[in-house]
Amino acid sequence: MISIKQSLRHLQSFTLVVLGLFLWLTLFLPIHNAFGKEVEMSDLLEMSLEELLQVKVITANKTTETVSEVPASVVVITRRDIEKYGYRTLIEILENVPGLYGINQCYPEGTAFGIRGFWSGWTNKQIVVLVDGVRQVYPSRSNYPLTTIAVPVEAIERIEIIRGPISVIYGDGAFFGAINIITDSSHSEKTTSLVSVAGGSLETNKVVAKLAGQSDDDDFHYTLNASRYQTKGIDAPYSKMVPPNFLNDIGVPEETTTANQMSSEENYFSFLGKYKDLSTIISYVDDSQDSLFLLPSPVKGVSNLSKVTTLTVNYDHEWSDRLTMQAHFSYLSYQHSSNADGVASLVGTIATEDNQADYYEAELNTVYTPSPRLKIVSGLSYHTFPSLSRRINIPKVGIDHLTATVENDIVNVGLFSQANYKWSDQLDVIAGVRLDSLNNYNILQTIGSGSNFYELYRHYDKGHIEAVPRLALIYRRNKQQSFKFLYGEAINWPAFEQNSISSSNFKIYPTDSLEPERIRTFELVHTFTPSTTWGLQASVFHNALEKLIVRDTKLIQEKFVSIQNNSGSLETNGIETTLQWHPTNAWEIEVSGSYQHTKDKKFSTAAAYSPQWLG
How far lies 357's CA from each of 7, 137, 360, 365, 407, in Å? Predict the structure, then answer.
């Protein structure tokens, strides 16, 4: 694919100009508080289960649709749900979604989520996570760690979770769907401002402030969120976590605990402003996490610091009753550094790592409704990393620098179209396809100490166009019962870090260029609401995952080295069910559970980190 670097420079300049103009407008417009805004519609808690199926979501197809119309399995978590269940963190919310299960590795990227029986080994690489429609991607690994998102639950208005492959809409990374965390109060029936202060054991404290409102003419809306969270983390003896004599074998005193090795601090700020068809989002996350370095240690472990800045401009305009256009420009600056003291108990070294990246994305989406029965959603996306580098320093083993730097822009371009056709009042037919491409690019790697080092060029040459299809049939037998027959595919392009380094004993060996991972899913979703007080939703699915990027250990030049390739293959069959009963407005009972069986076809065994039963 041909690089369009010059066009990118013009796009960057245009984005900054538009952002500057909009900020000027927002700063000088007369703003009025909206503490007293009345709720005009019934509260979600008072809706019947039939009415809940008509709740509108925007994540599934980048256009407003009801839950019953969306060609996917959908979970909507509202502000009321968060307050009702007493969720304190985003992790707690997601752990209560059927099909998702948290894996806490005491790792700086935080809790990793397995989805429908699959965990990639990297934190949240198999699902796209957005905040107010903006990707929160970690550039080096193309994944979505929650620690660098750090949105406090007090700021969340709703969360829309789309389960199932939707690469047709979102492209790379939407293997198992998308999670959109919405903090924008302009979408809410009631605008709320608040200040929250909380404290607890382990020197844990949290302060959150939210200010929201609109102008008198309702043309301008704003939402400002700020929070600070810190904790010393758990303090528990390692002797209760490891086998007998294990600590002695690695030279760690038996009385060693996790004290001061699990502390964290998160600072979060965001501003959302909307003036008529134009909106802007500015966010900043400063996250500090302490974690372990592979094994228990008597010293601090690993200190990690991440700083993420995001600037976004959106334009959403209804040109006519038939045509709506959405334009989106976003810039993300990512900086990460870590300092590992934990290896001191093993080889007496201190290691440092630094990652830096700039990420731009531009998208243009249109919704065309030529007739009441037909709606066509189309889009063009352009995502690029013009700057991306990784540096590791371990001087006591003779490595002053181990670096990987991209020498030309990494560019991902996608073009999609999806048609939603109402065949009859009972049957909807949805079909779509996406053409997604990644360019070839070069990575310069260096390794050595002082003047004694060598360079190694890695050339990624698997860039090409991938076709990703989607097909769905939605059959509504009556108002109480519906069926969704879903087929979809999705891809994961290999990340920069996967393409750059395969090492063991700090010796670099080149690997073959990696191809994108792919998933194919068949799913049947049945929704049954025989009355206004109780209902049942069940999803039966089959996932086939191919060309998964895994590591194989090989003996090269009398050294065992780790080589990454596309040899992984998994297969999952499962069922998810949710039963809801609302006997009165004051009472609600919900029971959910899932069964999933995942087979690692490469080794003909059950897949690791894949529990069969969840509830």
Answer: 19, 11, 10, 26, 13
Token reading at 411: 């560019």
User: What pLDDT sits at residue 30?
Assistant: 41
For 129, the token pair is: 């996570």
Q: Look at residue 585 and tell me whether its pLDDT is greater than 80.
A: no
Q: What is the DSSP string of 490-524?
A: EEEPPPHHHHH--EETTEE---PPPPPEEEEEEEE
**Distance separating alpha carbons of residues 30 and 299, to the nearest angstrom:** 54
Helix (H) or strand (E) holding 283: strand 278-291
CB 382 within 8 A of CB 362: yes
Determine the 3-state secondary structure of 248 from DSSP: helix
Q: In this predicted model, what pLDDT tens digit does every residue of 479-527 receive, in sequence order?
A: 888 899 999 999 999 988 888 765 434 444 545 678 999 999 999 999 8
Contact 133, 365 (CB under 8 A): no
Report the half-sphere exposure of 537 (CA within 13 A, side-chain side): 18
Q: In whole angstroms, what is the distance from residue 186 CA to residue 212 CA?
A: 9
Higher pLDDT, 259 or 300: 259
Task: List C-alpha distances in Å: 592 to 120, 177, 326, 406.
Answer: 25, 20, 36, 46
- Quote the pLDDT of residue 286: 92
